[in-house]
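Q: I'm writing up a methods section and want to include an example of the input and output format. Could you take the sequence below and give the corresponding predicted structure tokens, formatted cleanly so I can copy it straight into the document?
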Amino acid sequence: MKSLFGRTGPARFVRELLSPPSRGQAPEPHRTQGLAERRKILIVDDDTVFLKALTLKLEPRGYGVATAVDGADALRALRDENPDLVLLDINFPPDISHGGGVPWDGFLLMRWLRGIENVGKVPILFITGDDPGDYRERARACGAAGLFHKSQEPEVLISMIERALNGTASPGEMGLGVNFQI
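A: Here is the clean output for your methods example:
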């Protein structure tokens, strides 16, 4: 039976994001980038614990982080923050707080984000707690840079982010390959 967050949920991912390095393991390198060189990532997810945990993992690595919890917030943040990359959840609950009129979905948001002048080419990595196989073809068809399952190790996501920002990723490495297994 699937939980609200998919089969495994984000609990393991969040635990790993917040845990310190184990003994014998070198701490994560702290990059000393200037503010002008700092790459900014916009994370769009309705789970505030996931947003905070991922922010705490990315900021020490030298990334600037902006967050959004729904579609309207994401559109505002994209215009205001001018991110270099967007991490976009696929599933959002009904937008009850704003009248419930817009059924947000990561693919709909991506289409809207692509339409904003000067930001339409920002790489977008989808993130999901559901079975990524259900979304792989749609993500590939709409031009996503990658697809990440929340049950994977946080280091996999960070590696995907770095490859997407550097333009060195192949679809198979980014979760979009036909035979990619999670």
